[in-house]
Amino acid sequence: MFYQDGRADDLAYLVEQGDASAAYRLTELLTREGRVDELRSLAETEHVFAPSGLAELLAERGDVEELRRRADQGEEAASRKLVDLLAEAGETERLRALVHSGEPSAARRLIDRLRADGQDHEADLLERFGFAPDGSVARGPIDRTA
Questions:
Q1: In terms of pTM, does the model score above 0.70?
Q2: Which of 12, 79, 118, 123 has its CA 20 to 30 A from that of 18?
Q3: What average pLDDT does the segment 9-24 reach?
């Protein structure tokens, strides 16, 4: 193909023509080159691969706020990267908030973070019993029929 050299304008043209392979390659190229604004534009047009590349760059830059906004809008890639950043930074309270908001990967990362922080007992309780209705870590089985 004529876009093997990775020229963004050639790839963009093919994307407009509906070429899914070019869409993937364009996202890879823009991500590799750190072209956040162009990835952001592609993501806004529901470009299928762009949100992943954008989330990767935002995480590399530590842009928690934009990741949070995108995660709140339902972008799964942004949610995963946000969870990763918070876990790496040791932000257990923010991870807890994400668990309570329903972010699927946050619970596992919170448990891992608690263990890394030497809070094995709390991690074990959380893993075994989850959260109590008041948001604290349950200390035993919860009677959910009451």
A1: yes
A2: 79
A3: 86
